[in-house]
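Lab meeting notes turned into a lecture example. A postdoc, R.K., suggested we walk through two folding results consecutively so the class can see how the record format repeats. The first protein's sequence and structure tokens come next.
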Amino acid sequence: MKTIVASDITLKSAVPVRRLMEIYSEIKQWGGEVFFVQNRRMVSSSSLPKLLTFTLTVDAKAPVKMIVEGQKAEKMNEILKTQFEQSSTNNKAIEEKDSTLEMVAQ
């Protein structure tokens, strides 16, 4: 039975492209549909280019609504929420480290 689950995720920075492609593949294998909504913009997980553009232009100050539709949507929602938030947090830490290294080099 298909179910729909919605939750808010916070992306502190852009999700790395490689990680986004892994998440996209997981969604495709799962067979459901995921929608992301922020500031009246909505994108479906069915289009990788649109998903990539959306995540690169996301406003870090506003939450992103994630709507998961399909079999075992609750479980997939938790998996995706964790993956997106960890990816954006790890990316932010890498950016801060790179920034610190640039300041030290100067």
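The second example is placed directly after the first for contrast:
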Amino acid sequence: MNGIEAFIVGSVKYLGKERWTIRGRACEDISLGDILEHDLESTNGNTKLEVLSVSSYGREVTTLYKMMTGLIVVSVKQECELDNVKMLFK
């Protein structure tokens, strides 16, 4: 992985229809529309995740700033398993 560490993953939940909720802490600013990547090798090269929503402390925000904890909802274009992801990259 050549990207910058952007989000430390605490927990992951599959929502269905290629969408996942990921809770954790931002290492870099995370905004709506950002494309993040994971480093799992079992996904056949499908590493791109698009940020669909961002929230912190129960409120929707447009950006999760560096060092804030929060929740992001991401979309994956192809089916993949994100249960073992520990870090997301920019």
